[in-house]
Each structure stands twice: as structure tokens, then as C-alpha cells.
């Protein structure tokens, strides 16, 4: 997300992590907008699963604090969002602003299904 607690990462970090993993012999895939482009994330995961001769690294470009009034700033890195910003975020993304913590039923069901499948695989 290119942000540290002190500001932009260019202040203290210049490494190209994708190039480092390429040098290790990994397949490197990039998702340029991991905040919005869920299809690109799915496609990268599919490609990573198809590559069986070497490990894969998926580099996802994100924006810290996506959707908040502090989006893209170091102000969201080391401090909690304010109550008003949380209400605005919940409303922006279709959640009830009065609920303190909610996992949508379809998401909960999907995760529970994966947990059950994982437990079955571990027992095998």
C-alpha cells in the first residue's frame, strides 16, 4: 500500500519485492487494484494453482484505509479510524452502521465449509 507509519514507503524502502522473488525462481503475479478487482485476484490465484514446478508470489497493490477519509495516508496506519469515519465506511460498503461487528452469513458459511474440508483433509 506504499505507506509506512511515517509516510510514503519511498522514505525508507526502495526494494522491488516482486523482482526479488523472481530472482529466487518464483512465479510472480501482480494484481494492480486489489481493493476493487476481485476477478483479478481470483485469476491470479488460479494461475498460481496451475503452476506446479515452482512457488508463486501474488503481489497485490492495495490502498491503506481504502474507502475511509484517511485513505492512502499514514494517518490510518498507526491510529484507529474515528467513529464518524467508521459509520461512513459501513454505509459506503452496504453494512448496517449500528452493528459493531458482522460477518455476512454467506461469508461465514463459506469459511465454515472450508474449515470442515480442511479438518477432513488433516484427518486423512
From TrEMBL:
SUPFAM superfamilies: Thiamin diphosphate-binding fold (THDP-binding). GO terms for biological process: pentose-phosphate shunt. It comes from Lotharella oceanica. InterPro entries: THDP-binding, Transketolase_fam, Transketolase_N. Pfam families: Transketolase_N (PF00456). Residues 1-123 form the Transketolase N-terminal domain. GO terms for cellular component: cytosol. It comes from the Eukaryota. GO terms for molecular function: transketolase activity. This is Transketolase N-terminal domain-containing protein. Gene3D superfamilies: 3.40.50.970.
